[in-house]
């Protein structure tokens, strides 16, 4: 082949390389991200910001495509298996969802764990590391995420009730088996009722009170079916973590991986700083009063300690039933809370 012909071929190949951005060297990589939360949820905005930051930090080399509201048709109970097999790249992780495959993860944190909101920020690194350990066993790496706000939890009732004795003989709506057992330990009837069914259950008398996040009670119109509220304790809010399949992580180059991890950590730090906000809680309480709710005196310190003791007893039983990992998680978290 002549030198002239070789030069022509080189120019043609070079031009083709430019037009195609030289193959995979600068080709965009897309990660599909599953979120079971509705796009109207505040957390969704933080997930979208994460995706934006990834694109920005990678100079467009890496893209995260978020599917809100379970848009990929995945079930939360299956997410550990789904990520392990690489059927989706990323997901919003919440340990309490995986009781079938990893029951110990639901024992990392429990209601009644904290009595002051600031305790949540102190224990957050501990519970995060425990979740990381658990997910790693499934071939999932966690990289930052969304720290859920620590909202007030109260009893929302049709009658003025602000004591454990006052709840006896009443039926209380709760959101987990742990809470059912905790209230039963106190001689109070409770049952799990999904959030979407809570309004009707209160309206029709299936329950008399709802144990619920007071700060966001307005969003589910509790003021229309209850008239009184009393604060009990702060919400022990498990964090929403960004999990990526190790199979997907292995496909990323150093630049893409650094962008992903940096964006996730930035969102984590922003939401952590927003998590505890006394002014937000006070403003929400004042707003509920304008809606016609009578905000009673909080449950007494004695009642709070009684509730916490019952919650920890049930929590320990759950942990022991979950096996060695459950016991490890329970002992690790409670030992830090007691220090």
How would you explain this protein's 3D organization?
The protein has 339 residues and is α/β, with parallel strands linked by helices. It has helices spanning 3-19, 42-57, 79-84, 117-136, 164-167, 177-185, 195-203, 246-250, 254-275, 278-290, 301-321, 324-338, and strands spanning 29-34, 62-67, 90-93, 140-146, 152-157, 171-174, 189-192, 209-213, 228-234, 240-245, 294-295. Helix 2 (42-57) runs antiparallel to helix 9, helix 4 (117-136) packs antiparallel against helix 12 and helix 6 (177-185) crosses helix 11. The termini are far apart.
Layout of strands and helices, then pairs:
Blueprint: H1 3-19, E1 29-34, H2 42-57, E2 62-67, H3 79-84, E3 90-93, H4 117-136, E4 140-146, E5 152-157, H5 164-167, E6 171-174, H6 177-185, E7 189-192, H7 195-203, E8 209-213, E9 228-234, E10 240-245, H8 246-250, H9 254-275, H10 278-290, E11 294-295, H11 301-321, H12 324-338
Helix pairs in contact: 2-9, 4-12, 6-11, 11-12
Q: What overall geometry do the principal axes of the alpha carbons give? A: globular
Largest sheet: 6 strands, mixed
* Total strand segments: 11
Count of helical segments?
Answer: 12
Strand content: 15-25%
Mean pLDDT: 91
- What is the radius of gyration computed over CA atoms, rounded to a whole number of angstroms? 24 Å
Strand-pairing-aware structural class: alpha/beta
Distance between the termini: 80 Å
Low-confidence stretches: 3-25
Order of helices and strands: HEHEHEHEEHEHEHEEEHHHEHH
Q: Regarding quaternary structure, how should these chains be classified? A: single chain
**Spatial strand sequence of the major β-sheet:** 7-6-8-5-9-11
| Helicity, as a percent range | 40-55%
């Amino acid at each position: 082949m002549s030198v002239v012909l070789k030069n022509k071929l080189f120019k043609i190949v070079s031009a083709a390389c430019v037009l195609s951005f030289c193959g995979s060297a600068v080709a965009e990589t897309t990660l599909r991200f599953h979120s079971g939360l509705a796009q109207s949820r505040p957390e969704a905005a933080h997930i979208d910001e994460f995706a934006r930051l990834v694109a920005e930090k990678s100079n467009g080399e890496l893209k995260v495509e978020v599917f809100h509201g379970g848009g990929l048709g995945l079930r939360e109970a299956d997410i550990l298996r789904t990520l392990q097999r690489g059927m989706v790249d990323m997901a919003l992780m919440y340990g309490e969802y995986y009781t079938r495959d990893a029951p110990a993860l639901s024992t990392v944190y429990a209601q009644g764990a904290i009595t002051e909101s600031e305790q949540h920020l102190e224990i957050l690194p501990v519970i995060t590391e425990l979740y990381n350990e658990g997910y790693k066993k499934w071939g999932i790496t966690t990289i930052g995420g969304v720290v859920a706000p620590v909202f007030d939890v109260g009893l929302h009732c049709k009658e003025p009730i602000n004591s454990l004795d006052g709840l006896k003989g009443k039926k209380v709506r709760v959101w987990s088996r742990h809470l059912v057992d905790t209230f039963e330990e106190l001689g109070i009837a409770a049952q799990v009722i999904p959030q979407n069914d809570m309004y009707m259950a209160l309206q029709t008398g299936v329950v008399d009170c709802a144990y619920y996040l007071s700060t966001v009670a307005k969003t589910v119109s509790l003021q229309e079916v209850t008239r009184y509220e009393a604060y009990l304790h702060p919400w022990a809010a498990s964090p929403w973590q960004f999990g990526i399949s190790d199979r997907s992580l292995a496909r990323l180059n150093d630049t893409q991986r650094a962008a992903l991890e940096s964006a996730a950590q930035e969102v984590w730090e922003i939401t952590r700083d927003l998590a505890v906000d006394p002014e937000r809680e006070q403003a929400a309480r004042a707003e509920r009063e304008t809606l016609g709710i009578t905000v009673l005196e909080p449950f007494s310190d004695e009642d709070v300690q009684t509730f916490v003791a019952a919650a920890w007893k049930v929590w320990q039983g759950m942990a022991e039933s979950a096996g060695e990992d459950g016991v490890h998680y329970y002992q690790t978290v409670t030992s830090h809370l007691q220090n």
